[in-house]
Nucleoside diphosphate kinase
Amino acid sequence: ANAERTFIAVKPDGVQRGLVGEIIKRFEQRGYKLVAGKLMVAPKALLENHYKDLADKPFYSGLVTYMASGPVFAMVWEGKEVVKMGRKMLGATNPRESAPGTIRGDYCIDVGRNICHGSDAVETAQREIALWFKDDELCDYEFADKKWVYE
Ligand code: DAT
Ligand code: MG
């Protein structure tokens, strides 16, 4: 039950603005477990697949161009209800509707420069993790302080 996983990626603007550590820190401090992470310039084909549900939106091509414009820091985080909690920690898609205290609510302004991605559902997370990571890039290990995070 604590093994749910989500895909979180610091977008090119977040990387350029030096926010990789800040975003990692928030998930770490919450108690979630990092199971994979890598810096990469994502190929367009990967981004088109990642965002395929948005293919008919007017902003789709701009979105793919933006996401391919520099390195992203892709991660997998694990823990109880991490998909839903990750979305809460990110805030709303439009940063101007994100509550202060959330990642987007604290660090960005425009929807097209919203610095971080998070999977929106458990099934989406499974699809995205399989798209971005090979099985052998995911680390299976236990936190020594597990019993101090979970009752
Ligand atoms: P989220 O990233 O919160 O899951 P989404 O999946 O609906 O949001 O959209 C993916 C990304 O596309 C989003 O992070 C930023 C961009 N986007 C969404 N809606 C947009 C819009 N109306 N105008 C420009 N970019 C948009
Ligand atoms: Mg989404």
Observations:
- Residues 120 surround magnesium ion (ligand 2) (CB under 6 Å).
